[in-house]
Amino acid sequence: MNNPAPDPQPTQRGDLLAALRQDKTWDLAVIGGGATGLGVALDAVLRGFSVVLLESRDFAAGTSSRATKLVHGGVRYLAQGNVPLVAEALHERTRLLHNAPHLARPLPFVMPSYEWWEVPFYGVGLKVYDLLAGSHGLGRTEFLSRQEVLRCLPGVRPDRLVGGVKYWDGQFDDARMALALARTAASQGALLVNHCDVKGLIHEAEKVAGLTCADVETAETFSVRARCVINATGVWADGLRQLDGDALGRPVHPLVAPSQGVHLVVDRDFLPGDHALLVPKTRDGRVLFAVPWLGKLILGTTDTPRHDIPLEPEPFGHEVAFILNESARYLRRAPRREDVRSCWVGLRPLVKSAQVEEGNTKALSREHSVLVSRSALVTVTGGKWTTYRAMAEEVLHRCMSENLLPQRPAGATRNQLLAGAPGFGNVRPAPDGWNALSCYGSEATAVLALPGAQRQLGGGLTEAMVRFAVRYEYARTVEDVLARRVRLLFLDARLAARLAPEVGAIIAEETGADPEVKLFEALAQKYLHLPE
């Protein structure tokens, strides 16, 4: 088992850019700093490959920070009969919980039943879920009486309630998980640079031989040569594929069909306790979650196709109405628009038919696909957070089978602890036991050793946490800190906006660069805006 460096490693911007200036050819260049790209980078560097990863914004700034925060096997996929996918996800769920116990934990879910047939119907299906998990199970499924449901979900509507089913899945902090992957890969020798935008691809003899990129802060440009280039840009993957096709005069058919999921965040008193609520089938056939997370309650989600792919997608009015209306059917106190602390939207990179460029596309599952173009650009898209590690293994297997990388054995990431993990067997915090330092795990003492450790800014954030984010966690802007190093933008957008100037002053002191306070304040207003 490879362990990350025990002490945090500085992430000085100048050093990162100096490494980009090197005249060398990397084994692997990864474009995209979300779950998939970071997973590939970590797996590759642990196999001994030289790796560079570039992200145009911040790590997990897109889809990978906007998940429902669940590490799960996929109860919905079980209902669809996709047993292999569920079995794989359940096994990967356990690996994620073990490798990052400071960021992920088991979470009990309750399905309240208001019809007599729902308890046996859903209960039997969840017993199958237990069987598929086998030794990787987190807890056994239980049939609950009406009173037991009310004890588990004190805020649920009691009228017509007949009972329920309790089962177990996992929960995590998605943005900090991405950051842990990045920092672990860096500790093993990978070069990861955020806020560095890929501008084009380098072709030689009609094959991809590298890329060109530019530092967002200084506009300095770089040419990065690599034996293999991975397009892991998620919902934006077709844009890079189009660049590849245009350069060689070849047609490119769209691979991604975007869909958006909306989440509303309200105070925990709408559903006190340490259990999540799951409604498996709402009036229009969707799933509704009410999930406790970092002291708040997440309500969601939606699944709405859209044809544009904005960097900051906003909810549609009917999506907000759907979540509020369905929540009112199950919660004793119905959340209103004015109760929403933050509203955030993620775009899912759903994969179109595998007939796209038939012969060059390999569907790894119904959830993710890998395509190798004639120029040898490797594109991976689709999938979900829970299976990021298995996806990375399969991507590298495809690279090796296409002779883009030499053969090297898989398995290095199976028991790889992520940055901050205290080790296996660590006692995870209780569901209500989160505090502002929990996400740092074994590095909490390093945070406390920095200037301003006792200076509270608000919302659990200290001056030292901001300084740690800049010095050791790649943060460059107020958004980097308040959206992803701590999650205040996702938990309470109004409070995040109020803290922005003070946080920006600390960042500017650390970096000497513009912390983009005004841009963040405008972004926070979007997280507070609920369209009619």
Itemize the secondary structure elements and their pairings.
Blueprint: H1 13-20, E1 25-31, H2 35-46, E2 51-54, E3 70-71, H3 75-79, H4 83-99, E4 104-113, H5 118-133, E5 142-144, H6 146-152, E6 163-172, H7 174-187, E7 191-193, E8 196-204, E9 207-215, E10 221-231, H8 237-248, E11 256-267, E12 276-279, E13 288-293, E14 296-300, E15 304-305, H9 317-330, E16 342-351, E17 361-363, E18 368-372, E19 377-382, H10 388-401, H11 444-448, E20 456-458, E21 461-462, H12 463-472, H13 478-485, H14 488-491, H15 493-511, H16 517-528
Parallel strand pairs: 1-2, 1-10, 2-7, 4-12, 10-19
Antiparallel strand pairs: 3-6, 4-6, 5-6, 8-9, 9-10, 11-14, 11-15, 11-16, 12-13, 13-14, 17-18, 18-19, 20-21
Helix pairs in contact: 2-7, 2-10, 12-15, 13-15, 15-16
Key structural traits:
532 residues; alpha+beta; 10-stranded mixed beta sheet; 9-stranded mixed beta sheet; 16 helices; 33% helix; 24% strand; globular; disordered N terminus
In short:
This protein has helices at 13-20, 35-46, 75-79, 83-99, 118-133, 146-152, 174-187, 237-248, 317-330, 388-401, 444-448, 463-472, 478-485, 488-491, 493-511, 517-528; strands spanning 25-31, 51-54, 70-71, 104-113, 142-144, 163-172, 191-193, 196-204, 207-215, 221-231, 256-267, 276-279, 288-293, 296-300, 304-305, 342-351, 361-363, 368-372, 377-382, 456-458, 461-462. It is of the alpha+beta class.
